[in-house]
Every structure is written in C-alpha cells, then in structure tokens.
Amino acid sequence: MRARIEDVAATAGVSMKTVSRVFNHEPNVREKTRLRVEAAAQALNYRPNPSARSLAGNRSYLISLVYDDPFAGSAYVMEIIVGMLQACESTHYSAMLRPLEYSSAEHVVSVEDSVAQYRPDGLILLPPFADDIKLLQRLDELGVRYATISAKAKDARVGTILDERKAAAEMIAHAVSLGHRRIAHITGPMAHSGRAWRLAGYRDGLRRAGIDYDETLVVDGGFSFEDGIAGARQLLDLKLPPSAIFAANDDSACGVMHEAFERGLSIPQDLSVFGFDDTPTSRQVWPSLTTVRQPCRDMGRIAAEQLIASIRDPSAGQLVPVPYELQIRQSTGPVPTGTPAKRR
User: Fold this and answer.
1) N or C: which end of the chain has fewer CB atoms below 10 A?
2) Helix (H) and strand (E) counts for the chain?
3) Residue 274 to residue 279: CA distance in whole angstroms
C-alpha cells in the first residue's frame, strides 16, 4: 500500500503538521527534525499527494511562466524554461507555460483570465510583460505574486536582472579594440526592454571611443533569424557598409551571417558579427559567434526560487543581479584593410 503522511509522522515521531511543513519547505523547522522526516519518507517511499497538499495549504503549488508567443521557440525562452523547471523540481512545485500575444490590446485581460482559470500561486514574467506597468499594477491589485526577468522598471522587486547596457558597451569596446569604426546595430523589438538597454549600451560604447553616432548604421529589427537577414540587407546595401554588425541577440546575428555568406562575404575577414545571449546556437554555427553570455538558465532558476520564496513568506524574495561575460569567438576579427568587399 502507498505510504500516507500519517505513516511518515509516526515513523519520524512528529505530528502530521510538521511533516507537511517539511514538504512545503516552510521556515522554522529544526534541521534535525527536517532530516528525520526526510529519512522516514525515504524509508517508506512516501510521495506527497499533490491534490491533498493543495487543499491542505490552500495553494495550487503551481507557478506560471508568461512570455510573448512570437518568442515561444527561441533558445532564450527555452533556456529560461529549463532553469525554471530545475527550481520547481527541487521545491515540489509544478510549472505551467503560458505564451500570450503581447501585441494584443487585451493582453492584461489575457493574463488575468489565465490566473483565474489555472490559479497559479505566482507568475514569472518575461519582457515585454515584465515591463508592463498596467499589468504589474493589476497583479498587485489582485494580490498575485510575480517575479520578473530582465525588467527595466526601477521598482522591480523579485526576480533577476542583468546589466545589459554595460554588457553591450563592453562589446562595442571590444569591436573598437579590433580597429572597427563603422559599427552597426540591429535593434531588438520595440516593446522589449532589451532593445532600449542594448541600444543605449551601443551608444555608450561609441561615445567612449570618440565615435559619432550615425543613425544610418542603426536599423530596427527583432529577435528572429529573419530580422537579422532583413537588417543585414539594409546595412550591407549602404554606399559605405559597416565593418562590424552588433545584433540584438544571437538568432538575429545568425541571420546577419547568413546574409553575408549569400553575398560572398567572409566572416570575420570582410565582416565581424556580434550577438547577445550565448545560446547553444552561438556555439554551433560556424564560425562560432562572439556574443554576451547571459546566463538564461540560471536566470530562470533564480527567478523561480525567489518567487517561491516570496509565496511562502511575503517578506522574502529578492531581485538578484546576475553576471554577464563576453564570449570572444571566431565571428569577429580585425577591421578589413582596403576597400569594403564587393556587395551583390
């Protein structure tokens, strides 16, 4: 027969309430007691009943990741999901993925409907949802706990954040150190906070190097492979094309590389390409992509851990800064000498 919570309590010599507190990771349980309960549960092969657990604690033990549907298949989102699942596994929570259309005028209502239908204990919000003031205010009104990832709002409270502006500036400094002066940028999507931070960092890097900002070298883009192709076409068709292109993310950077190869250009001999995120793709393409390592998996894990901590204790949960690191690879090299390579 399946072991019951009563069996674990009897074996450990504690109350059923104490067993419940141990498995719910609640504070104020002595370490010796916790170890005794865990040993008893392991000996009896006890597994908590999710339904009974939810009823007893008036919780769903479910957290939901809310992200913009167009980015559902991106490597960035997938890495966030893996990290979130790691945190859920270690805390006995379940995870739900909720891709929604941010471009819809009803996106706040969509999130509200999702909360009402599935009743998660909390939400993890990716940009642009993480930066939507109306959405955040509505969640506060409803008493729904949430964590944000890479939010640009100064009053973000729980989740993770990375200094994308500083990272982008350092990437431009690296390009300058290779001799590049005509450095272009393909931006991220308008609604995404990464666009603003990375564009600001690009401009910071140019200013510190004494290079004037040239608006013709900045094109609107997005986070897809196709966005990179479109941006590269616009930039490489300039009368004097750039010698280096900094794309807002790795997928877009791969699109730049594709378009360069279509034109018969060599990377990095004719064109240096920079990305952002350090997704698996950046290491799988050839030449491998110079990029900013954003620890997406760690960010998903930490955001989930901080959210669950705040669910258990309203005074807990923090906004945790995470480090970045430049990954210098084969897609970048010294500025070409002589005239720019021929364009098709």
Assistant:
1) N
2) 13, 12
3) 13
Q: Do residues 274 and 232 share a domain?
A: yes
pLDDT in tens, 198-208: 999 999 999 99
Residue 146 pairs with which residues in a beta bridge? 123
Q: Which of 4-13, 22-31, 286-295, 325-334 has the lowest mean pLDDT?
A: 22-31
Give the total number of structural domains in the chain.
3
CATH number of the domain at 28, please: 1.10.260.40
- pLDDT tens digits, one per residue of 90-106: 888 999 999 988 888 88
Note whether residue 147 is domain-resident: yes
Q: Positive or negative, the Cα torsion across 137, 304, 158, 327?
A: negative
Taking only the tens place, the pLDDT of each residue in 327-339 is: 999 999 999 876 4
pLDDT at position 315 is 87
Assign 245 to helix, strand or coil.
strand
Residue 153 φ then ψ, to 5°: -65, 135
Long-range (24+ apart) CB contacts under 8 A made by 20-24 are: 20/53, 20/56, 20/57, 23/48, 23/53, 23/92, 24/53, 24/57, 24/92, 24/312
Q: Are residues 310 and 240 in the same domain?
A: no
Choose from 19-23, 114-118, 182-186, 220-224 the range with maximum mean pLDDT. Answer: 182-186
Whether 338 is in a domain gets the answer no
312 lies in which domain range?
62-162+296-325
Which CA distances in Å does 44 have to 6, 169, 336?
Answer: 11, 56, 69
Same domain, 75 and 151: yes
Compute the distance between CA of residue 225 and CA of residue 247 in angstroms, rounded to an integer.
10
